[in-house]
Amino acid sequence: MLEPIGSIFSSHRFSTAFASRLTGVLDKVEARQTSDDTRLSVLKFPDSRTSKESARGGSLQDVFDSAVLAEAPTEPYLILENKYPAIRSLRTDADIGDGLWICCHCHHENILRHWKGRFPFKYLRCVRCTRKLSSDCHTSEILTPWPFGLIHAPRPAVGREIRYCHVCTTCGLSHRAEMAGTTLDFYGVTCAGCGTSSYGDWPRYHIGNVEPYRRDPDSSFANLIDARADDAAKLVYQWEMAALESRPSSSLNCRNPG
Ligand SMILES: [Zn+2]
Ligand SMILES: [Zn+2]
Ligand SMILES: [Zn+2]
Q1: Which ligand has the shortest distance to the CA of 41?
Q2: pTM above threshold 0.70
Q3: What is the Å distance from ligand 3's center to 53 Cα?
Q4: DSSP E strands: which ranges in 18-104?
Q5: How far, in Å, is the centroid of ligand 1 from the Cα of 207?
Q6: Cβ contacts of 100 within 8 Å, gap of 6 or more
Q7: Rounded to the nearest whole angstrom, what is the distance from the C-alpha of residue 26 to the centroid of ligand 2?
Q8: What dihedral angle (degrees, nearest 10) is formed by the CA atoms of 166, 170, 173, 177?
Q9: How many CB atoms lie under 10 A from the CB of residue 50?
């Protein structure tokens, strides 16, 4: 279990006053994301699409049920070498998994597993709060955020799968990217879970190496917490700068870009 965010900030390098401001900022981020979600629902498809989706639901479950793990199991010596962390028990390959995802909403520490096939992480929904993975969450190497501008990558070795994926912003189902030559294709995908189409706008990830995390899950965890604190501090700075620059008359303009 994670410490509440306020105590992380105050026990490390942030003052209590700063921590409470950060918490306020994080709440604002969450409020903003909720309104984004509401706006996205407008993009959902009409009823014809929805009924197709429910017909497909059973077969998707079949795919999940028969899915095979993509990564080799954790080496027993790595499990033995680990000083078992106090925060959770890591005694088997299943405990360790392939990586970590710390939910940006409830801070739950989710274990990630990489599966062979079209849906490499199945549904990426937090086991505690059920919210889907977002670009504000923090993940270990197995789900390394991949910038939108980069579309070239080496072809995987023969018999290996493409190690890139993107995640439906509506339902959180992960989809393995396709490739034409050395160009990654993230466009024109219809989500097998909810029928939403990707216009190349779903968050993209490189499916990285499991080794660094498995060698030292504890320090992977600590790094993710640090990254989260750094991101929050940067946000506070950006918004305070923006607040200094904004004039009362401009507040109407920035509310509704569309
Ligand atoms: Zn959560
Ligand atoms: Zn998130
Ligand atoms: Zn979906």
Answers
A1: 3
A2: no
A3: 10
A4: 99-102
A5: 21
A6: 109, 110, 111, 112, 139, 140, 213, 217, 220, 221, 224
A7: 11
A8: -20
A9: 12
Residues with Cβ within 8 Å of 147's Cβ and at least 6 positions away in sequence, in order, are 204
Q: How far away, in angstroms, is 257 Cα from ligand 3 center?
A: 25
Q: What is the pLDDT of residue 41?
A: 39
Q: Which two tokens stand for residue 174?
A: 């992960």
Distance 173 CA to ligand 3 centre (A): 5
Q: What share of the chain is helix, strand, coil (3-state, %, to 5)?
A: 40, 15, 40
Q: Which ligand is nearest to the CA of 110?
A: 1
Alpha carbon of 111 to ligand 3 centroid (Å): 21
Ligand with the closest atom to the CA of 125? 1
Residue among 200, 195, 170 at smallest CA distance from 183: 200
Determine the distance separating the centroid of ligand 2 and the alpha carbon of 136, expressed in angstroms.
Answer: 5
Encoded tokens for 64: 């999940």
State in Å: Cα 81 to ligand 2 middle.
32
pLDDT tens per residue, range 106-159? 999 999 999 999 999 999 999 999 999 998 999 999 999 999 888 888 889 899
| Residue with tokens 């004039």, as numbered in its chain | 247
pLDDT, tens only, 154-190: 889 899 999 999 999 999 999 999 999 999 999 989 9
